[in-house]
Amino acid sequence: MKIRLAFAPLMLCASLLAQQTMTVERLVQFMESSIQQKEPDKQVAAYVSRVKLSEKLDDAVIEKLQNEGLGPNTVAALRRLGQASSKLAEPAAPVVAAPTKAAEATQAQLPPPPAEKQRQIIEGAREYALNYSKMLPNFICAQVTKQFADPTGAGNYRQYGRVVAKLSYYEQHEKYEVVTVNDGLAKNSSMESVGGSVSTGEFGSMLHGVFDPQSATDFRYNRYVTFHKQRTYVFDYSVDQEHSRWQIEDRETKQHIMPAYTGSVWINADDFSVLALTLKAVDIPSTFPITEADSRLDYAPIEISGIAHVLPSSAVMHLRAGKNDQKNEIEFRLYHEYSASTTLKFSDIPDDTPAEKPKQ
Question: What gap in Å lies between CA 232 and CA 106, rounded to an integer?
């Protein structure tokens, strides 16, 4: 599992649209209204991109809104907004999206499972994670990466790049081939040739790094929620530096570290499959150029040759070096069974094509 970063000089155009400042509570009201009125996902996302918050937007609020029916573009825009507001004060009063009646019962405050049940949940997820790569079929898909940057550190991200790559998964090995960069044919198919930040390892190694017994991961129960309409246990976790295998590399200086990290994991209560995973580096050495690094990976049931497999659907990677912020929003699309004759028209993927949606 690697994350690499190189900050290149960027000339970013100032937005012609004035930002509107509002509270988290007011934003949630607007999002709930857009869900009820079934407003177009792309239109709502464009609105969110012009919002500036006066308070911190929590991931939990975004998750609840996502479960209520927000589209993928709006959710991605909210995650950018959440990152931009991460250093602001907490809302004066707790803000949550109103749950549906169906979700209300499952999202009620429930006591933590007994210690033995928690152990069974983690062991079930561990077995799933360690065998995940073996369970996957051979396939190819499109990996679409939108690159965002903010050289001021103020949270005003602007998109500067879009990379489409062919990802082949064959006999438990990943292979990435860059097809287009900013809608032009790539001169070099290597991911190393792409400017800005890049990441690999979404198909198994992130899961393995958290659940491998050699990582000595400390799991702590957090809560029980409805996530993607699935009954889900959320556990927080931490991996110390001694046992870490998460490698972060600064591509400009060629320095790399394996830091300690923390995160959360969403575990399906029915079959212990992992539905989402986050990682955040902690205690990064002060001599290392990168000062912040975190990632989030979401999975969804996706059909390949008529059989549903739990596969990565989207990911977000964020890196910061001083005031320079970079963030990648990654979507995995057009999953097909692997064969020598399979072809995908990567150049035909429009910028606003949504990622694969979970099957309800």
Answer: 9
